[in-house]
Design brief:
The protein has 421 residues and is an alpha+beta fold. It is built from 14 helices and ten strands. Helix 4 crosses helix 6.
Length: 421
C-alpha cells in the first residue's frame, strides 16, 4: 500500500526512469561502467556469418561492430574484479546480458543520430567538466578511476556523448505527452484513496561524513580526517545565517548531497526501523522543526540530521491539500513517458538488423560450458584469504550488468533506500 508519505519516493522512481540502454557513467561513484566506450562505433561488413571472427566481434547492429573487448570490459567492471571466480557458465551468462545492453544502446544511439539529438562537442565538454567537479575527486584520482575502468579521456567523452544523445532522444519522444485533464486527476484520486493518507512521521535531511575511502567523491579517507571534517561542518552550521542545504551540497559524502541532504519522509514505523536509537527523539515535540542534531554514528559513518517536518497525527489529504494535484499530475505524466519510451525502444529493436555472434556461439556449443567455479588459490600461511567471495555475492555483482548507478544512502539496517532519493 502506497501512502502519501511514500508517494514522493514512488514519484522519484518514475520520474528518473532510464531505459536499460541508457548506460550511466558515474565516475564519482564507486563503480564506473565502461560499456561501449569506443569500440561500438566501428563498422563491419554485412557478409555471411563466417566472414566475421566471433572471437573479436560480439555483435553487429546495422553494420556497426560491438567488440568482444567491450563486452569483457563491462563484465569485469560490473563483476567488480570477481569475474575470475565465476564458472564458465556464469561468465557466459554475464557476457550475454552485458551484450544485450550494448546492442540496445547502439540501436538507440543510431536512432539519436537520425533524430539529430547528438550533442555538440561543447555540450559534451561542459557535461564532462560538470561530472568531474561533482565527483569531488582530484584530477589524479579521477584519471585513476577512469584507467581502472579501462577508459581514456577520449573514450569517456564518447560515452558521455552517447548517453546525452540517447537521453535527449527519449526526451524528444516523450515530449508529446500532454498534461492530464482535471477529471483524470480527480478520477485517479478517487480510485486510490489509500495513497493520500499522511501518517505520523518526519522529513529529515542529513550531512554525512564517511571515514572510509569508498571512492565516491569522499574527501575524508580515514577516522582522523572524518573527525576533523565533522568539526569543520559544525563550525559552519553554528555561523549566523548558515544554510544547511548549501553546506550539505558542499560537504556531505553521500549521494543525498545532490538534494541538499534531503533523505525524504519517514513514517514513525519506518523511523523505528531505520533509526531505532533516534526515533523517539525525532518524534518528541520538544525537538523543534529546523533543529539540528549532534553528530551521530551510524554504520561507521557520521550523520548530522536536520528535522525538516514532523506530522503529529495521521491525516487524510484532499485534492486541495498542498502538492497533491501536482504529484498526481507528475505521476501520470511520467508513467506515460515510461511506457512510450519502452514502446519506442521495442520498435527500434525490431527494425534493427542485429547479428549476435556471441549468442550464436552459445547455441552452437551448448555443452562446452562448465558450471564449476574455479578453485580459490591457497592463502599464504597465517594470512587471511581474501581471494574468495560468497557465491551469492558474486552472482549479485554480475546480476545487473546492463546498467549502473551510484549506491543509495547507507542508512542503518532496514532503511528504505527509496527515501534517500
Amino acid at each position: 500500500m502506497l501512502h502519501i508519505d511514500e508517494f514522493e519516493g514512488a514519484k522519484a522512481k518514475v520520474h528518473n526512469f532510464n531505459l536499460r540502454v541508457i548506460v550511466a557513467i558515474v565516475v564519482g561513484a564507486a563503480a564506473v561502467f565502461a560499456a561501449a566506450c569506443g569500440g561500438t562505433t566501428g563498422t563491419t561488413s554485412q557478409g555471411p556469418a563466417g566472414s566475421v571472427d566471433p572471437n573479436e566481434t560480439a555483435a553487429t547492429v546495422n553494420g556497426k561492430t560491438i567488440k568482444m573487448e567491450d563486452v569483457e570490459r563491462a563484465v569485469k567492471q560490473q563483476a567488480q574484479g570477481q569475474e575470475s571466480k565465476l564458472s564458465p557458465l556464469e561468465l557466459a551468462g554475464a557476457r550475454l546480458q552485458v551484450l544485450q545492453g550494448l546492442i540496445e544502446q547502439e540501436v538507440m544511439f543510431q536512432k539519436a543520430e537520425k533524430e539529430n539529438t547528438v550533442p555538440s562537442d561543447d555540450d559534451v565538454a561542459a557535461e564532462v567538466n560538470r561530472r568531474k567537479v561533482e565527483s569531488r575527486l582530484s584530477a589524479e584520482e579521477f584519471n585513476k578511476q577512469m584507467s581502472q575502468a579501462g577508459l581514456t579521456e577520449q573514450s569517456f567523452r564518447e560515452q558521455v556523448r552517447r548517453e546525452i544523445a540517447i537521453q535527449k532522444l527519449v526526451e524528444k519522444i516523450t515530449g508529446r505527452i500532454e498534461t492530464p485533464k482535471d477529471e483524470e486527476i480527480e478520477k485517479f484520486y478517487r480510485g486510490n484513496p489509500e495513497m493520500f493518507i499522511k501518517k505520523r512521521g518526519v522529513r529529515l535531511a542529513a550531512i554525512v561524513v564517511d571515514p572510509a575511502n569508498s571512492g565516491e567523491g569522499d574527501t575524508t579517507t580515514n577516522q582522523a580526517e572524518a573527525e576533523q571534517r565533522v568539526k569543520e561542518i559544525l563550525g559552519r552550521l553554528q555561523q549566523p545565517g548558515s544554510d544547511f542545504t548549501a553546506i550539505a551540497r558542499e560537504y556531505s559524502e553521500d549521494p543525498s548531497r545532490f538534494q541538499g541532504g534531503d533523505l525524504g519522509y519517514f513514517t514513525e514505523d519506518d523511523l523505528k526501523q531505520s533509526y531505532p536509537q533516534l526515533a523517539a527523539g525525532f518524534m518528541n515535540p520538544e525537538f523543534a522543526r529546523g533543529q539540528i542534531t549532534s553528530p551521530v554514528g551510524i554504520s561507521g559513518r557520521y550523520y548530522i540530521f536536520k528535522l525538516q517536518e514532523r506530522v503529529e497525527k495521521e491525516e487524510n489529504l484532499t485534492l486541495d491539500s498542498p502538492g497533491v494535484r501536482p504529484q498526481i499530475n507528475e505521476l501520470l505524466v511520467n508513467n506515460r513517458k515510461q511506457l512510450l519510451a519502452a514502446a519506442y525502444q521495442a520498435i527500434a529493436m525490431n527494425e534493427a538488423e542485429v547479428e549476435n555472434y556471441l549468442a550464436r556461439k552459445v547455441v552452437e556449443n551448448p555443452n562446452e560450458l562448465s558450471g564449476a567455479r574455479p578453485a580459490a588459490p591457497p592463502s599464504a600461511p597465517g594470512a587471511a584469504n581474501t581471494n574468495t567471495a560468497p557465491a551469492a555475492e558474486t552472482s549479485a555483482n554480475t546480476n545487473n550488468v546492463a546498467s549502473n548507478a551510484g549506491r543509495p544512502v547507507n542508512l542503518s539496517a532496514g532503511a528504505n533506500a527509496n527515501r534517500a532519493r
